[in-house]
Amino acid sequence: MAKKLRLPALALIAVAAGCSTEHPSGEQLVQDKGCVACHGIDGRAVAASYPNLNGQWERYLRLQLRAYRDGKRQNGIMQGMAASLTDEEIAILAEHYGR
After folding, report:
1. Domain 25-97: what homologous superfamily?
2. Digits of tens for pLDDT over the chain (99 positions)?
């Protein structure tokens, strides 16, 4: 009986401790990760020297962010920005910008 209660008890402890299983929204993540500084909240670049991301294919954005993160695509700024991104975060960012 004690074993059956273990998982629900751990879930309650996680909720009480403020842990969340919810994923951040794309809008929140682009702000938290600093993407908005160059690409704007909606993917429209803030300066001509930065690419617009709105309207890009989601799959393309996902592949490029992984390539930056993994060092397969070279760009000092983007490699640094993508270095700590998880696959889940990359998917959220790509979905947000790749509407």
Report:
1. Cytochrome c-like domain (1.10.760.10)
2. 455 545 455 444 444 445 556 789 999 999 999 999 999 999 999 999 999 999 999 999 999 999 999 999 999 999 999 999 999 999 999 999 997
